[in-house]
Amino acid sequence: MMEQRAINAIRMLGVDAINKANSGHPGIVLGAAPMAYQLFTEHLQINVKVPKWMNRDRFILSAGHGSMLLYALNHLSGYKVSMEDLKNFRQIGNTPGHPEYGHTEGVETTSGPLGQGISNAVGMAIAEKHLAARFNKEQFKVVDHFTYVICGDGDLQEGVALEAMSLAGHLGLGKLIVLFDSNDIQLDGKVSLAYSENHQKKFESMGWNYQLIKDGNDLQSINKAINKAKKVNDLPSIIEIKTVIGYGTSGQGTSKVHGSPIGLDEANKLRNALNWHEEPFNVPQDIYDHFRKKVTLRGQRVYRKWLNMMDLYKEAYPKDYALYESFINENTVINLEDFRDDISSKQDATRNISGKIIQRLSAMHLNLIGGSADLTASTKAKGADGHFERHNSLARNLNFGVREHAMGAVVNGMVLHGGLKVFGGAFFVFSDYMKPAIRLSAIMHIPSIFVFSHDSIAVGEDGPTHQPIEQLAGLRAIPNLNVIRPADTHETLAAWKIAMESKTTPTVIILTRQNVNNYPSTSYEGVSKGAYCVSKEEKACDGILLASGSEVDLAMQTKELLKHKGYDLRVVSMPSHYLFEQQTQKYQKEILPKRAKIIAIEMASSMSWYKYTSTVYGLDTFGVSAPGEVAMAHFGFTSEKLADFVIRKLK
Q: Whole-prediction pTM value?
């Protein structure tokens, strides 16, 4: 029977590649192959020749350790995943150990850490729903696709997944369908060692449509369940499919086959058990033909039909079509002149400035959407046009609730979907809750925007639990992550311009709670270079005060204080270490000449500054509960205390 042979081809490609690599996870490949086959051949609408087609269905293998399941499917379906790629599984090349977005064709997200993939999928479903509300007409379904997920027991134990699934149920994301590979086994043994919840009651209480398939090899039941889920428009769906991990091996149903190759002898036994008599990495042509008919050609027909519809849409709704094209092309350009009226010389907190900028950006760029984790009143990171809700999906303010980790992953998923610029906001100290998602955005080279306020001990009375100290150093250590800590209005606007125009780098914008002075010498041009002089020495440079954020204001005040004591200082603002490192050595030496005495100033861990100087006026202890001004004075962040320190270091 062709269906069974095709499923076994998936299974054996997985086994053979894992054996050759002597590394990998064969259990899920063997157990989940039938559900994956049924999804790809009967439901998934993709065009492998146009892999970035905007209206394709999205498929996310959230259980990313089972990557060979995805690679085998993508190879058989016609993506650019060759047999040589499969033979080089887990080596440097096209088929890494966990799926990597932008690395292997047909991979929609980097789904290594459990829970992240399903949370990304929630973001994709939100993006689909919002864009559909924006562009669809009764006779033109411009945006109309499903987001499918295969997840495992481990995914559903991760807090991030439960946060995201709670949000999905609340929002009624009916185009999100999760296939749950429920095999009751995880790495350490039976799932029952750590988990005993009732899946049906749990997911139904979270607002999900739940179905159970008792036999993971029953293709007809799987097909029927997916069709039923596709008809539920107001609830996300989860289909629990009971499978046998490592199906067909002598270790089936045990944790032995979760994350270790089964070996050549066991593979030969499996071949006999499955009636599969092909040599390793050999797939008969009729199976390729089967996948071509059921996946490749079917998807191309759907794609051509969509293109024809879009021609009619363009003719009937030219303005909507032009707007859609601008969303999809993602060539956002920010004109600073548009914000001239928003630039003020008055003192203000950079969080307030950022909030005003978001409002202006939202009015000019309808593709901007986002919100905060129950903190919009404090972060000022709020989307426009009302609250995005179950029955108001054109609104652009996302109420993530107290779900920081899910917010990070959902933002990534929305960006991965395409067509939108997306931000999420929180207090800076809670970037710790979002670190895995932020890190993944950097790995994937996607332009997610993360907005964090309350950036230092100036938070004040809430005390050390809410005062970030080590977070700046930690985020600055992540490759391909642009952490920008603006000093004032000009720099905050610059940060947003950089974030909005970015295409391959996520941006973290770090903002103050307290007011700061605005300086005419700060600029977008300076911020775009990472560091620049905001106040030059008058004659001979006695030293350089190097700072970021609100500490630039402190440095400027300290310079004026020391000027009266005969010191001629330069003040350098360094809002972005990341951007400064991209400049020429000549520019870097001009801004921070090695002959000069450099004193770095920041109300946070000193760690990230030692690359530029051995002298850091930082904070390497936790904060204190007191009013912001008192806390800063307590730790010596006043112009008088800093001036005394500078004098000692310059002598």
A: 0.98
